[in-house]
Structures are given as C-alpha cells and as structure tokens.
Amino acid sequence: MFGFLKPGKEAPASSDDPSKDGGKAAADAADAAPVRPGWAERLKASLRATREQLNRSVGGTLGAPIGEVGGQIAGLFGLGRKIDEALFEELETALLAADVGVGATQVLIDNLRQRARREALTDASQLQTALADALAGLLAPLAKPLDVGTHKPFVIMLAGVNGAGKTTTIGKLAARFRAEGRSVLLAAGDTFRAAAREQLEAWGERNGVTVISQQSGDPAAVIFDAIRAAQARGIDVVLADTAGRLTTQMHLMDEIRKVKRVIGKALDGAPHEVLLVLDGNTGQNALAQVKAFDAALGVTGLVVTKLDGSAKGGVLAAIAREHPVPIRFIGIGEAIDDLQPFEPREFVSALFD
C-alpha cells in the first residue's frame, strides 16, 4: 500500500500587537540572537581541515590563524622564500596530501613552473595567486548550474554509497526548489532501510511536499508510481531516492540500472538528471565512485557533501582532471542552506584566503 503524505500547512499568523510587551520581548530576543555567518564565511571555516592538511605536509604551524601570510600554506609561500626546486617538491607533497591526486597535482605544478618562467617570478609569495588561478581554472569546467525548468516533471534520480547523505540532500534540494516557487514530489525509493523512508517523510513534512513510499518491495515500482502521480498532479520536480550501495556489490549495481530503465518507461527521456552524492571525507575513493556509478548510470551531476571538517577537499581537483562530471552542489553542514551551487572561484578563495 503506497502512502501519500499531504503537504504541511503554514502556522496561522499571530494577531499579537508587536507594540505590546510580548511583541517587544520577542523583538528583543531576535536582536539578541547571534547572526549566522554568511555562506562564504561558513565555507572558509569548513575547509579549514584541508588547509591544515596542507600546512601539516610542509611542517607549517597548525596554530597559525587562518589568513596569516597565505593561511594554510604560509610555510610554502612565506615572504622572502625563493622559488626553487625544493619549493615545488614541497608543494607537490602538500597537494597530494590534500587528495588533489597525482594527475591534477602534476597539471598544477607544471602550470606554476611555466608561469614562474614566463613572468620571471622569484619570490615564493608570488606563486600563491598563481596556484589559486591554476586551481580555479582546473575546476571551472565543473561549474554547470542545474536547470530543472527544461521538463515537467523534471525527474532527478539520486544515487551513492551508504552514508553519503542522499536522503538529507534530497530534503535540502526540495527546500531549495520550493523556495524557487516550484512544486516538488519525493519518491522513497530506498525500500531496504526503514529509517530512510521515515527520514524522507520527515523532510516532506518540513518542506510541505508529498512523499510517495511503500513499506517494502521493489524500489523501481515506487519511483514509477511517483512519476505517474507527478504527471497527474502537474508537479514540477520529482526527487527519487535510492538505496545506498557499494560499487563492488554487482547485484545492487544491476538493480539500480533497472531502476533507471523503469524511470525511462514511466516518462520518456527521464531521468533528466542522475545525481551522484559523494562524501567529501572519502578523498580519492570518491573519484573511484564517480567512475563506477558513471559507467553504470551515466551520471550527469555530482553533489559533494560533508566538506565541513574534511581534510580531503582537494579531491574536487582530482575529479576535474581524471573524470570530469559537473559538480552541481557542495554541502558543508546540516542546515538547509548549507547546500549551495558549486562556484570554483569561491571554493578556491575559501581554500587559500
């Protein structure tokens, strides 16, 4: 039996006069509440572990405040240090330790060598901007915003390994699309884990959107029915959850291929987006996941979660070099607005400033 969760209702507006004592107390409390930092500041704080990993690699001072003499790479680009082979070797070590990957590291180092020669750079501090420019250039092709306005309903299928954050990502995306004025329907395609269904239903209540689920059974059937319901109701976006699976579990990889085929039978041309959710803490393993899921499903976009506290943020550069797939969003926390579109220059600025 499929369950349908009705959209939540807004709380009735208060009739209290703000000029009365109760209104004044509420206003005073709001004034006293701490102001939450903006996205750029939160992103910078979240990438601190990656900065410290770079610092650790070159024997820098972990206790140095972020932003001093180039922040995390002060030991490399300290004022007065000469550009020489030892510097490039230390920089290579630092990038590899941050999971930038061998291929991307080589590209970046070659870029810096060429720029140093071309511009006759002599001081190591001059290379900091050069490295930021090179990294931003490497990541730039991955910045392709997701456009859900090309089809109705626009069907997004989410996949990933266990614990990557798929269900939470769906909840945050639902909130984003709702804020844009779009109608959303959630399909609880993870029929193996009861907690996943319950978690998705909680997100549905929170966002005021319908969730179609089933106690157990075929995940493809759940998503099929969800798409048909979305067509009947004129829904703008369908977000289809799937169970987490390891890429080495071949029977489960076959199953998710079936899910995609069934989606195509429910609606010609769907899914319109296949999002792979990656845990930013997995480093180079994330690159292996991209390759495996892309081979199985034809991944069209990535969501990189849990970058807050990760010392492996450099894996985005590895993906750009080894298997470029657009990064639609990055996540740095549990709050709804901690998932934002990927902006390379913003990311690089947070990593180096």
Q: Provide the residue-averaged pLDDT.
A: 84
Question: How would you sum up the major sheet?
Answer: 9 strands, mixed
* Overall CATH class of the largest domain: Alpha Beta
**H/I helix tally:** 14
Question: Any idea how many domains?
Answer: 2
How much helix, percentage-wise, in residues? 40-55%
Structure description:
- This protein has 353 residues and is of the alpha/beta class.
- The protein folds into 2 domains: 40-142, SRP54, nucleotide-binding domain (Four Helix Bundle (Hemerythrin (Met), subunit A)); 154-352, P-loop containing nucleotide triphosphate hydrolases (Rossmann fold).
- It has 14 helices and 9 strands.
- A 9-stranded mixed beta sheet has the order 1-4-3-5-2-6-7-8-9, with helices on both faces.
- Strand 7, helix 13 and strand 8 form a beta-alpha-beta unit.
Q: How would you describe this structure in keywords?
A:
single chain, about 350 residues, alpha/beta, Four Helix Bundle (Hemerythrin (Met), subunit A), Rossmann fold, 2 domains, 14 helices, elongated
